[in-house]
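W.,

You were right to be curious about this one. When I first looked at the sequence I had no strong expectations either way, so I just let the prediction run and decided to look at it fresh. Below is the sequence, 653 residues in total, followed by the output.
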Amino acid sequence: MTWVVAGWEVKVAKSSKRASKAAPQFLEDDPSTGYLPGRRWPIVRYGLISLAISAILVFAIELIVRGDVAGTVLFFLQPLKPGWTTIVVFALILIGLDAVLGRSHQSLMIVAPLTLALAFVGHQKSHYLGDPLYPTDFLYARQIFALLPLLVRDRPMTALAMVAGIIAGLSLLVYGWRLWRRKVPALSHKGRLARLTLAVPLLAFFVSIMDYATFSWTRDRLQIIPIMWDQKENYASNGFALAFALNVPMAHVSAPPGYTDKAIKAIDRPQTTASVPDEKPDIIIVMSESFWDPTRLPGVTITPDPIPTVRALRSGSMFSPEFGGMTANIEFEALTGFSNAFLPAGSIPYQQYVRTPTPSMATFLKSEGYSARAIHPGTNWFWNRGAVYADFGFNDFKSEETLPPMEKRGPLASDAAMTDEIIREADASNDPVFFFAVSLQNHGPYEPNRYYNPTHAVQAPISQWARDSLLSYAEGSADADRGLERLIEWAKKRERPTIVAFFGDHLPPLGPVYVETGFLKDNVAPRKEPTPQAALDHHETPLIIWSNRSGPVANLGTVSPAFLPYHILTAAGITHPYYTGFLGEMRERYRVVDRNLLLTPAGEATPDWSRQKEIDPAIRDFRLIQYDMMFGKRHAAPDFFPETVDKGVAHTS
């Protein structure tokens, strides 16, 4: 009885103690808000902890992307800069995800690994290609994985460390997730609803002001200024997360100012009509991967000359809109006669915009009885080429999947094997052929000792690694030059008229070689060059247009790839309302049309032209026609691309 009474007395005493320090009911229902007996303001404490976590995470993201502690600190020391807005947005995301997951601060286990991984990838892309990470890059993530074997071969220890780090990180994440679910109490329905009520409307409002194409008073007050014409500055000024978000709308291309049916009709129609010679010439275009003249590097001597054929036949230079990569964007211009200058910075038309039949040289030549064929020794899905070439009107695309086994030189299919295939198919065709071939052999990275039997020697005051890397590149360039020589010698013996065009798509991604030789300050060229001459130095690749009847076309100067259809078809004696008519008239006004630079035939430069209030009406018309044919209602088709109308090509935006 005594024990029972004592037990009762103890129980009553404990109950009295609880009653004296009773917590508010909503906190008892939701202990994971941070409530502890004797501690007040759990909601404020939870909010402050979320903000602190967000601040640390955003700082880490910026530090990884920038690779510079001082620059990262400076970004946050400016109180009116977007860094602080980013911290608040991340806190709202964490709070909202906590409500979804049902545990306080568990959202960090999702947001932190994801954003830090994105930051790392963004830093690597900027380091190797010079561009920040764009949302649209994930449309071609498969290409990145396809190149991993080359990257592993180039830096095996780094690759091994990355794999080990990924496995360890994932294991730790899984363990931490399970431990957190066991140790931290679940949120109540009331607590989850409160978090969602706070986070969702504010995040929705934030999303609504992020369309860079429209003015936002709030965004302006927050000092978030979309700098879409200079993406490096955009990411530096707004921070990685906000700049990444600002680039999401690039998937949609807005109509140029004044785009209407009447505006298209007001464009002067060229007097040129579509015509081909009675004896239709074969047209063979070879876009050689990363082909460039490595002897242009300061202080470098390569013996023997790696590109004697190109040097002897050179017609001019192609001004690449890219540096070290993004091959598909050069293809897009060279085949369509359209320009990347009129599309959002960082976009890849092959991935985002070519989703329906799109006029190209292949479309036109096929309508004139040509067999339009594309050849690339890589996979058909790379850069979405399989689907894009079909929309461009090619009859056939031979890729790794459908080509006969091709001899390799180094790790990739050789230029010699691709040349053999071009010659074999051309000789076997009764119809005139239009070939567009993209080589693969000299794709980067250029690991030392790529070829076991080098035929050249490199002399330069640079490190041994850089010298060996440059030798690997020079060997590949020499093979490309020999492939062109063989193609020319074959074409000289043909009775059928034959046009051969050859050019590099962009400068090679030589990275440290550029820095050690003094050619560049960084591994890649800046998007916005300080002078027009610097832009030419870093974007010119050799261009040859040659005929077996008249020899090489001479004195073309430097031209954008969008003008290649004009020069190639003109050399073949072929005319077309757009490719030789409209582009021919444009070529008289400009030889380079780039998003950062206009260059006239006389060499007069207009930098940052797209930011000016008044734009040359010729450039405006160029942009209007391109938008109309790619995204609009194709009002220009009957006059500029009659072959698409005759065949009833359907189009939907």
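Here's what jumped out at me. The mean pLDDT is 86. And, maybe more interesting for your project: Residues 288 and 541 are 10 Å apart (CA to CA).

Coffee later to discuss?

I.
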